[in-house]
Design brief:
The complex is a heterodimer of chains A (206) and B (349).
Chain A: H1 2-8, H2 15-24, H3 28-50, H4 53-69, H5 80-106, H6 110-124, H7 132-151, H8 154-165, H9 170-177, H10 181-202
Chain B: H1 4-16, H2 21-33, H3 35-53, H4 63-85, H5 88-124, H6 128-134, H7 145-160, H8 165-192, H9 194-221, H10 225-229, H11 233-253, E1 264-271, H12 274-287, E2 291-298, E3 301-309, H13 310-323, E4 325-326, E5 339-348
Parallel strand pairs in B: 1-5
Antiparallel strand pairs in B: 1-4, 2-3, 3-5
Classes of the chains: A mainly alpha (206), B alpha+beta (349).
Chain lengths: 206, 349
């Protein structure tokens, strides 16, 4: 797992800082570069947190706009990527709370709607598969995984998404979530156990 | 030795190789002896493989462009706010000050406009005094048969005074009849021009004296001073009445100067260039809202005549001093009247 995680580590270097400084001086075009660099990762964090592609797009967009608005507050002692990922994680959590509240009032299960939307997404925008049978299996499997991720508590979910899906180091997760190292590890441990239990239930071959 | 539950709590981290060396050793030992925990480790490993194998989603088309459009929109708003309000410490007081200035200016302009409106209204509708003065203008200017007869009568008085009192008395009686007729006419005129009549009282008195002097002069010319002096008091009164008639006639003679019923101020202005000064003077008159401006050129001298409000008179004269040398004259306005007629003679130094 650690090897895969390490492979997934894609961190923008200090290059960001140059563009951030230009943005701070009012150069909007410099933000274009930052959006280009981070949009995919931002969207995937939001998507795995939310389990809903459309909502994830909205949240990502809001997070970028919010980041631009407060870019003058950004200080060079932190990494821009860490800062902007924290924004998207927080936006995702807030939006989830809103949606949960809405679902409770309307009496609709969020899980059901998420499931439908995730299935729809899997039919559409996933990576190409040559074999239709394999593609089908992959879609199904990924839908189960997402279902199980979505079933986790938000605190566990965010750690799992950042570590096992996005491949951030413990140090980075600690910075993004602003929680101690020990908390990151304990939450991750519980999240993985919960995910395993969930997958055991939904997938017979685990 | 730790229980299975304790081992399973840290088992996910064992998989991640993120346990301390001691914990790692303990877990490894436990896994060798506990098949249940080993099975859990296998499940964890499979779950990790699954979660690591899930694909990333791609952003929708034009995602970056949409984000940037929103960002630019926000930047525009921010720039607008920054442009107008930041730094707050400087721009807010400046804006407040500017607003106050505009408000004061607006009030000032509004009030100024009111004054101008008054001027416009007054110039378009002339004062009733001027109108009533115009009406007697077409009246005969001393050439009416009555006047002619009056003059003739005067002559007769002068000549007949020499031949005795009785003749004088007769002629005076005739003159009195005429006088009564004239004063009836005059009264009707005065009725028409009541305001004008008031101011005409003073000049009329002057005329009276002058006429008296003339009469006396005429009498003395004929070396008949004692006779004139010996005229009875009645005759003297009659003479005065006669003189009144003459005065009335003279007042009528001076009908073109009816406007002078308003107090007049004569100013002589000596300048180096008469034409240029005249132009400037005209502008100054206009500026002070002068009415009925007339301009007459006579022997290289330009005479302006205009009605000016008393309140503007002092300022106007001070302006005149800037144009040229103002001759010393009586330039005190009659404060009983609103207006004063200013007569300015512009001539070369």
């Amino acid at each position: 797992m650690s090897n895969i995680t390490e492979n997934k580590k894609v961190m923008s270097g200090d290059d960001d800082l140059k563009y951030v400084m230009r943005c701070q001086k009012g150069d909007t075009d410099a933000f274009d570069v930052l959006v280009e660099r981070h949009q995919k990762k931002m969207l995937n964090i939001a998507f795995r947190m939310m389990g809903n592609y459309d909502e994830a797009c909205d949240v990502t967009q809001e997070a970028f706009v919010s980041a631009y608005k407060s870019i003058k507050k950004f200080k060079a002692d932190a990494r821009f990527s860490t800062w902007i990922y924290r924004i998207v994680v927080n936006y995702s959590k807030n939006r989830l709370k809103q949606l949960n509240g809405l679902a409770k009032r309307e009496g609709v299960s969020m899980d059901e709607t998420e499931e439908k939307r995730t299935d729809a997404l899997m039919n559409g925008s996933l990576v190409n598969h040559t074999n239709p049978g394999t593609e089908m299996e992959t879609r199904e499997r990924e839908a189960h995984v997402q279902q199980c991720i979505s079933s986790l508590d938000e605190d566990y979910r965010e750690v799992l998404v950042l570590r096992d899906i996005q491949g951030f180091s413990y140090e980075e997760i600690k910075d993004i979530l602003k929680i101690p190292d020990g908390t990151v590890k304990s939450r991750l441990s519980r999240a993985r156990n919960a995910l395993k239990d969930c997958l055991t239930k939904v997938m017979s071959d685990l | 030795m730790k229980k299975c539950k304790d081992i399973q709590d840290i088992l996910p981290l064992y998989l991640d190789d993120s346990l301390s060396a001691d914990d790692k050793e303990i877990v490894a030992e436990h896994l060798e002896s506990c098949q249940h925990c080993a099975r859990e480790l296998t499940r964890l490993s499979k779950a990790a493989t699954l979660i690591n194998s899930i694909h990333e989603v791609n952003p929708p088309p034009w995602f970056k462009q949409k984000i940037m459009a929103r960002v630019r929109e926000e930047a525009g708003k921010e720039r607008f706010i920054q442009k107008w309000f930041y730094p707050l410490k400087i721009k807010i007081p400046v804006q407040i000050f500017a607003t106050i200035c505009i408000a004061v200016l607006a009030v000032y302009i509004y009030r100024g406009g009111e004054d101008r409106m008054k001027n416009v209204v007054s110039s378009s509708a002339p004062a009733p005094v001027v109108e009533t003065q115009i009406s007697p203008l077409p009246e005969p200017q001393g050439n009416t048969p009555a006047d002619h007869e009056l003059k003739m009568q005067e002559k007769r008085i002068k000549t007949k005074e020499l031949s005795g009192e009785m003749t004088t008395e007769k002629s005076v009686n005739r003159a009195r009849d005429l006088n009564e007729q004239m004063s009836a006419d005059k009264k009707s005129e005065q009725f028409e021009s009541a305001p004008a009549a008031k101011s005409s009282a003073a000049p009329a008195t002057d005329m009276e004296t002058k006429t008296e002097t003339n009469v006396t002069g005429a009498a003395s010319e004929g070396s008949m001073a004692p006779q004139t002096q010996s005229l009875s008091p009645k005759a003297a009164t009659e003479m005065r009445k006669d003189a009144d008639v003459t005065g009335a006639a003279m007042t009528r003679d001076s009908a073109p100067q009816a406007k002078s019923l308003l107090p007049e101020v004569n100013i002589s202005l000596r300048v180096s260039d008469v034409d240029a000064a005249a132009g400037e003077l005209e502008r100054t008159l206009m500026k002070y809202g002068a009415q009925n401006i007339t301009r007459r050129i006579h022997q290289g001298k330009i005479t302006f005549r205009a009605g000016l409000k008393n309140q503007n008179l002092d300022d106007f004269i001070s302006q005149l001093k800037m144009i040229g040398q103002v001759g010393s004259g009586e330039i005190a306005a009659d404060h009983l009247k609103d207006k004063t007629i200013v007569v300015i003679d512009v001539s070369n130094r």
